[in-house]
Amino acid sequence: MEKMNKAAMAATKIAELLHWIGGATMLGLFICSFAAPDWLLEALGSAIRGGDGTLKVYSFEISGTDSSGTVMMSAVTMFAIAGALLLPLMAMVFRNVYLIIKKSKNSTPFQKDNVRMVKEIGIFYVSMPLVGLTLSYIAKLVIGVDLVETGADLDGFMTGLVVLCLTQVFSRGLKLEEDVDGLL
């Protein structure tokens, strides 16, 4: 079990770090979309056109090209905004998972901090599809309904609800453990 905990701690810390780096990169992409749009089109244009033209980050998806195959800088900007918001949310999920494993290593998982962190994980998961959905509507308003195809994946919403339910299990476990400790 100890080896599995160490591996899980390492994996969650690496995933957290990669998500923070990804969020910072998306922030850089957002800045470049205004500061150097021509350079950005040259650097990313062939990559966007080379695939199916879809830009996706977690619960947000947008078509990066118009019907003629031209890359839309406004779509790239919306994608960068989505990435700059969603990747840090997921980084916080991995951070909390890491801290839960670390705090529970030599103790019980039923601790006040763990209950709070499980609840935060649920909130982060619920907020991700809401951010994606909101940005999809904003993209359609800003770019135009006829010019842009967007999508929002709502699976994270259901995952968040399940995790929020697990918060109740952890909360009950904490109360039971406190009751047992009071009897001893």
Task: Please describe the structure with a list of short key phrases separated by commas or semicolons.
three-stranded antiparallel sheet, 184 residues, 77% helix
Description:
There is one protein chain. The protein has 184 residues and is mainly alpha-helical. It has five helices and three strands, in the order H-H-E-E-H-H-E-H. It has helices at 2-35, 37-50, 73-104, 112-143, 155-183, and strands spanning 54-57, 60-63, 150-152. A hairpin with a 2-residue loop joins strand 1 (54-57) and strand 2 (60-63). The longest helix is centred in the N-terminal third of the chain and has 34 residues, at 2-35. The model has no long low-confidence stretch (mean pLDDT 87).
Mind sketching the topology for me?
Blueprint: H1 2-35, H2 37-50, E1 54-57, E2 60-63, H3 73-104, H4 112-143, E3 150-152, H5 155-183
Antiparallel strand pairs: 1-2, 2-3
Helical content class: over 70%
Number of strands: 3
Gyration radius over CA: 21 Å
What is the structural class? Answer: mainly alpha
The stretches of 5 or more residues where confidence is low (pLDDT under 50) are: none
Residue-averaged pLDDT: 87
What gap, in angstroms, lies between the N and C termini? 28 Å
Biggest sheet descriptor: 3 strands, antiparallel
User: What is the strand arrangement across the widest sheet?
Assistant: 1-2-3
> What's the helix count?
5
The portion of residues forming beta strands comes to 5-15%
Overall 3D form: elongated
Element pattern in H and E: HHEEHHEH
